[in-house]
Amino acid sequence: MKILKYGSRGPDVQLLQLALNRAGFGDLETDGIFGNVTRNAVKQFQSGNGLSADGLVGPLTHRALMPWYTGFFAHRIHRGDTLFGLARMYGTTVEAINIANPGLNALNLEIGTTVTVPLPFDVVPTAIDYTARLVSYVVRGIAARYPFTGSGELGKSVMGKPLWYMSAGSGDNIVFYNAAHHANEWITTPVLLKFFETLAKTAAYGGSIYGQNAAELLRRSSIYIAPLVNPDGVDLVTGALTEGEYYENAQRIAAGYPQFSFPAGWKANVRGVDLNLQYPAGWEQARQNKFALGIVSPAPADFVGTAPLTAPESRAVYDFTQALSPRLVLAYHTQGEVIYWKYLDYEPRNSREIAETFSALSGYAYEDTPYSSGFAGYKDWFIQDYNRPGYTIEAGLGVNPLPVSDFDKIYADNLGILIYGALVT
Q1: Is 394 an active-site residue?
Q2: 171, 287, 366, 411: which has the fewest C-beta neighbours closer than 10 Å?
Q3: pTM of this prediction exceeds 0.90
Q4: What pLDDT is attached to residue 354?
Q5: If DSSP codes are grouped into helix, strand and coil, which group holds residue 7?
Q6: What share of residues in the chain are helix, strand, coil (percent, to 5)?
Q7: Is the per-residue pLDDT at 332 higher than 80?
Q8: What is the distance in angstroms between the CA of the first residue and the CA of the last residue of the chain?
């Protein structure tokens, strides 16, 4: 992670401010501006953790802050440790420690072994801008707290960043939800992560989510999420990527298409390929449609690439979907509060009825995809090749990128869709 100091700005500073708040070193506004208040909080944290109190956040300070980035401590057992004592030390509960450490013998804690100790806050932030690094921390934190979940990489981005997936459940009803094919639609990433964390937490502690018993849901279904399909593009939009070869190339691409603001109007991957126009379902028609609009080369949005599946991110999602063979997919986008449920004249069994239910649960309309944008998308390919229900959910209203202040409404509107989607058989 980059060195942060007085005058730094951006999403990495927001995450720093959040971590300092979580650690009890201030009540900072997570505005992404490293000013005097943030510098003083950093110095206090450094002093309290045996570090040089210089106000510079370099590797040692980032390492010390890691538990507040990821939401857990890895505690090495010493003589005399007890679970009750660990819970008091870290402000958590014995139950949380037991959930994170299945098979742990509370009466025989072996000296020298490492115990995962969850901290007393949810892992997923919902009030700061997202980056690829933050998603990595969140995935790590959820996996540590709820080891009955799964996680891994379904591929790499252009810049080599991991394309994370998470999974929960053991049932035959396999569903796959993905988010942020488009960079300036990144608010869908915390929607999926918050859903997944809430589902795992509710299942672990026993309880219901949106009227459904969480543990029973995970016995019936297997839920997979890919929360950040386009990490490089998201970093460009939110300001985590502001220099270097890839940034400069993106600037050159954007200069050729001044109708798109930079970086706020960027939807593509960092090479200027629109990832949701990369799937082999009428790709040639999508190419014709976009070329007619003048998008004939790498662009901030709407460039289909030189052939289907040439972007590594789209190829990874394609391959992962083929390996899963899910019964239903959701692709999360913004904005419009509309559900697109159909591709050409394909109408998989029950797909209209499911769309009607999604509409009733969310208040979103359900519509046919407009012809001008109705080809080469992820759900188009899935419906075409699998003849199973697939949906593009256009969450929220406004101008992309939607502000993070819209998160609560978007999440509330979509929780029913995310639950019901896993119940469909």
Answers
A1: yes
A2: 171
A3: yes
A4: 98
A5: coil
A6: 45, 15, 40
A7: yes
A8: 43
